């Protein structure tokens, strides 16, 4: 794992705020994620990552799959996302890292060999990043299940999975691409949508039982931010990544505090200000046959109207012998 991080930082370059190339040295939380890659951890699990927006995980994922494509001959690595644009963002990162990679010479003392490493790729054809060893990184625009059913791969990346409308079918098709073994990586900014029936949140809540390891990277530690107060007036620690602009975050918070909490603090929309928690609501979601109430046993209905993309909740309480 240690050598993998060293390899990562030695091969790849990124641009700083002034446009100058510098070594791509993963931050500590990014190293935590990389150390569980199948490339360096024989006891790897699938991964699901709940992240704040702009924490740099797209570049990290791109570097990991480039190393995977280079170290395995003739493999195809599918990358699914919610649209052609978001799929191509990840592919563009892969191409950038390839084009600015550095040749290195590592000496493996245990095996007594020199390992010369230089990433070489062919010109990107039809939005596929191809390598001279026969491997390729294939973006699946829109995350169509039909597009990946015929692919056999050791690695599957499901980018912005919480926003994919075909979560169950894309995951089912993706699992079949790994029929000979491999690692699924699900990475996304949170979205509520239908949290009680959402595949992304089902995996998150039952990660251990489903063979996934969970990672959560909010911009600030959970529980520290008062979303109803200016960030500039709170005594907050530095953001998780040094390039994150706090005044810009404050601008986002002032426009919509709940969306800010969802996209930056990994808080489920409205969860931070909800009277009833999602866990409690989930326990109450048991479908029963409904009968029209009699005048002697009226039902009182309360409606919590959802805002933005949140759910609208309807609760009914029946009066029976003076009790609800």
Account of the 3D structure:
- With 324 residues, this protein is an alpha/beta fold.
- Helices cover 30% and strands 19% of the residues.
- The protein contains ten helices and 13 strands.
- The strands form four sheets. The chain has a seven-stranded mixed beta sheet with strand order 7-8-4-9-10-3-11, with helices on both faces.
- Helix 8 (246-255) crosses helix 9.
- The protein is globular and about 80 Å long.
Keyword list:
324 residues, 7-stranded mixed sheet, 19% strand, alpha/beta, globular, 10 helices
Number of helices: 10
In the sheet with the most strands, the strands line up as 7-8-4-9-10-3-11
What do the pLDDT scores average to?
80
- Main pleated sheet: 7 strands, mixed
The radius of gyration over CA amounts to 23 Å
β-strand percent reads: 15-25%
Task: Reconstruct the topology from this structure.
Elements: H1 2-11, E1 13-15, E2 21-23, H2 28-34, E3 46-51, H3 57-71, E4 76-80, H4 84-99, E5 104-108, E6 113-117, E7 129-130, E8 136-140, E9 155-159, H5 167-177, E10 183-188, H6 199-205, H7 207-210, E11 212-217, H8 246-255, H9 257-265, H10 278-284, E12 299-304, E13 313-318
Helix pairs in contact: 3-4, 8-9
């Amino acid at each position: 794992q240690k050598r993998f991080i060293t390899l990562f930082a030695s091969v790849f370059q990124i641009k700083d705020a002034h446009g100058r190339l510098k070594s791509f040295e993963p931050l500590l939380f990014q190293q935590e994620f990389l150390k569980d890659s199948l490339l360096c951890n024989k006891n790897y699990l699938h991964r699901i990552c709940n992240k704040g927006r702009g924490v740099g995980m797209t570049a990290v994922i791109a570097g990991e799959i480039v190393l995977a494509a280079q170290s395995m001959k003739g493999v195809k690595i599918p990358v699914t996302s919610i649209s052609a644009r978001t799929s191509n963002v990840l592919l563009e990162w892969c191409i950038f890292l390839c084009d600015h990679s550095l040749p290195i010479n590592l000496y493996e003392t245990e095996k007594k060999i020199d390992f010369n490493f230089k990433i070489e790729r062919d010109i990107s054809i039809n939005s596929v990043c191809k390598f001279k060893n026969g491997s390729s990184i294939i973006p699946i625009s829109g995350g169509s299940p039909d597009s990946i059913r015929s692919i056999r791969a050791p690695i599957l990346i499901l980018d912005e999975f919480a926003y994919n409308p075909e979560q169950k079918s894309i995951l089912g098709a993706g699992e079949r691409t790994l029929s000979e073994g491999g690692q699924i990586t699900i990475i996304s900014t949170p979205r509520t949508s239908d949290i009680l029936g959402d595949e992304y949140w089902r995996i998150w809540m039952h990660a251990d039982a489903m063979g996934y390891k969970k990672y959560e990277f909010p911009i600030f530690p959970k529980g520290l931010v008062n979303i109803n107060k200016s960030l500039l007036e709170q005594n907050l620690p530095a953001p998780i990544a040094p390039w994150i602009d706090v005044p810009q975050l404050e601008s986002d918070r002032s426009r919509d505090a709940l969306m800010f909490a969802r996209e930056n603090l990994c808080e489920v929309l409205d969860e931070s200000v909800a009277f009833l928690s999602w866990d409690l609501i989930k326990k109450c979601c048991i479908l029963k046959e409904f009968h029209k109430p009699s005048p002697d046993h009226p039902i009182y209905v309360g409606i919590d109207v959802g805002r933005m993309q949140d759910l609208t909740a309807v609760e009914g309480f029946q009066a029976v012998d003076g009790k609800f």
